[in-house]
């Protein structure tokens, strides 16, 4: 039964990350997930120091606040003329270093494993369950990832045209009266919530792969946003299933194997994509030369 919980939790995390990752890829902000996943560390530590416990709610709130703070700082720096990659690097390194300093200062009082925060361990997910009225409802991480995924689905479905237009042509969206900044921060908020809901299981670093790789793979396979969103969720789920069984065979990290499968699927799409694959384009050029 534990293997089913692990696969299901991994599939929900990968799907929720990949779904939002599509918009980050289109906006050329793929590394924003990396920035947010690092910047939430001080929020986790501060939430622990204030609440005195490791309850999920205060840690979730603290991490979400610092994730949103990171996106706000990045946008403010970009508005002042700082390049996007430089703004992300400055923001998340500064916030991440604050978290490291807090851990080093309060290492005797804070029962917080930095390796767990960074790398996570999805194998322990089945043992941290949520009980409601005496009924075991399953792992907390699964419910958190599922809630984040459902929230993203609802909001994107309600404002699909706005998200689509602001991702492809923000200048046109602004010209026709769509509040581009509002939808930018709404998307960043969803990314922050999803990152916070995922890091407990796959870690603050490995969640970046789930935000980028399945979405980038789907981007190579289609030229339609709706299809891209569906493919990214499918690829994320496939990474979870195949990665778990690969970890059993190799006796290795489950989250690491899921990420490795995602990298393998991206490599296949990069080589054999119907329109953008390296091997496909080489074969088409060879056929054209033969015909000519």
TrEMBL record:
InterPro entries tied to this protein: ABC_BtuC-like (IPR037294), ABC_TroCD (IPR001626)
Q: Which UniProt keywords apply?
A: Cell membrane, Membrane, Transmembrane, Transmembrane helix, Transport
Q: Which GO terms describe its cellular component?
A: ATP-binding cassette (ABC) transporter complex
Cellular location of this protein?
A: Cell membrane
**Residue stretches in coiled coil:** none
SUPFAM superfamilies tied to this protein: ABC transporter involved in vitamin B12 uptake, BtuC
Give TM segment ranges: 6-26, 33-51, 57-77, 89-107, 141-160, 172-196, 202-221, 228-246, 252-272
Q: Does the keyword Transport apply?
A: yes
Q: How does it sit in the membrane?
A: Multi-pass membrane protein
Give the protein family: Belongs to the ABC-3 integral membrane protein family.
**Which protein is depicted?**
Manganese/zinc/iron transport system permease protein
Lineage here is: Bacteria, Bacillati, Bacillota, Bacilli, Bacillales
């Amino acid at each position: 039964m534990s293997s089913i919980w692990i696969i299901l939790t991994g599939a929900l995390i990968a799907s929720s990350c990949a779904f939002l990752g599509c918009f980050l890829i289109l906006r050329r902000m793929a590394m924003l997930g990396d920035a947010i996943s690092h910047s939430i560390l001080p929020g986790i530590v501060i939430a622990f120091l204030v609440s005195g416990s490791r309850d999920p709610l205060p840690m979730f709130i603290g991490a979400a606040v610092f994730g949103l703070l990171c996106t706000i700082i990045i946008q403010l720096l970009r508005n002042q003329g700082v390049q996007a990659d430089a703004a992300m690097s400055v923001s998340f390194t500064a916030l991440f270093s604050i978290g490291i300093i807090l851990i080093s200062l309060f290492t005797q009082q804070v029962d917080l494993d930095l390796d767990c925060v960074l790398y996570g361990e999805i194998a322990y997910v089945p043992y941290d369950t949520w009980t409601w009225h005496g009924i075991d409802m399953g792992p907390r991480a699964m419910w958190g990832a599922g809630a984040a995924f459902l929230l993203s689905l609802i909001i994107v479905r309600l404002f699909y045209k706005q998200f689509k237009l602001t991702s492809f042509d923000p200048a046109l969206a602004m010209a026709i009266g769509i509040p581009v900044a509002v939808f930018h921060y709404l998307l960043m908020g969803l990314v922050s919530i999803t990152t916070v809901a995922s890091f407990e299981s796959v870690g603050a670093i490995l969640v970046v792969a789930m935000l980028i790789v399945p979405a980038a793979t789907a981007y190579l396979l289609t030229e339609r946003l709706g299809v891209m969103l569906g493919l990214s969720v499918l690829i994320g789920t496939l990474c979870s299933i195949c990665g778990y069984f690969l970890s059993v065979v190799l006796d290795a990290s489950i989250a690491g194997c899921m990420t490795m499968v995602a990298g393998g699927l991206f490599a296949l799409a990069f080589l054999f994509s119907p329109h953008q694959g390296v091997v496909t384009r080489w074969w088409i050029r060879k056929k054209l030369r033969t015909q000519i």
